[in-house]
Write a structure and sequence with these properties.
about 190 residues; alpha/beta; two-stranded antiparallel sheet; about 20% strand; disordered N terminus
Length: about 190
Amino acid sequence: MRVAVAATLAAAALLLAGCSNDPLAQQYLAGNSKNYIAGDGSVTEITAADRGAAVSFAGTDQAGNPVSSGDYAGQVLVLNFWYAGCAPCRAEAPALQALNAQYDGQGVSFLGVNVRDQASTAVSFDDTFGITYPSVIDTDGALQLAFSGTVAANAVPTTLVIDKQGRVAARILGQLQDKSILDTLIKSNLAEAS
């Protein structure tokens, strides 16, 4: 009996030790009620040869309009996973809108993916922060699931750059710290051949 208890305690200690070095696990275990798991701002770039297949998605935006991956064929798409109560999402909103305006008409589109709110809350957020691009209301997780097999949006906010072929080219996990980072990712994907 003592051996079984000791083995169980040892296994539990190893499991907890493995989680202790994972910042996302630490946030969860802290239980501080901030209601989101924040990323560390890390950037993951995927070379064109390693991007795999295009990701197909569909949903409805905050105005009730259908949105799908086909709407963005041949463009660079910036997907930002967010929700209104997320402080880092509010902090990065002006930078995202500035880049959206900068690339207007240049083969780049922005699409928000609201992971928690109802349409009216997303519209209010857009009005408050001057956001002019649409957001899919993804409370059922369909868009998140569509990207889970490639480079998942493991934290909120997460920003994905989708290349002209519809493949994930880059991920920023957490708040966009400097808009020049996303600007560089957009430019490099615009420069790639279709």
